[in-house]
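Handout, section B. The chain below has 190 residues.
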Amino acid sequence: MDRRHFLSTAAAGVAFAQDKARRVGLIGCGWYGKADLFRLVQVAPVEIVSLCDVDRKMLSQAAEMAAGRQKSGKTPRLYSDYRQMLKERDLDIVLVATPDHWHALTMIEAVKSGADVYCQKPISVDVVEAQAMLAAARKYKRIVQIGMQRRSTPHIVEARDKFSAHRQAGQDRAGRDLLLLSHAQHQPSA
């Protein structure tokens, strides 16, 4: 096989992979979950296959919205228990938008089921959970992304820069104090 043939074959494979709709499931159908899901629908070829939430009203509203926003018009399968949803083992991507203390368990089970995961921030409630999540992603060779929306807002950047400057100057101050000070300076006046 010559280089030209290899490159044209590889390019065709990449184009096919990009056109294939990924099967997506959402765990946590509140505002953040729906915002992440519907943004994904706008930017990538996906099929919303499954939705999960313990709140039946939130779940049914999300299902109605999902059916209206995806090309197929199909209503996704509905679950009140994420473990039942993941037992299907037919999802390419799982979005985790649960309350913070559920991120670790749902993300670990999602990668075990063979899905790649986008998880809302924070990654976990403590370092041990985050380490377990990282170990699971590596063990099951899955792609995991954690939301980082506020990493570039002006007051966060300013707080990071101030904290770094103080550390370099040997003034090891608590980052929390600098963050609160910076945040307070950028609040609208009442």
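Note. The first helix runs from residue 3 to 19. Compare this with the example in section A.
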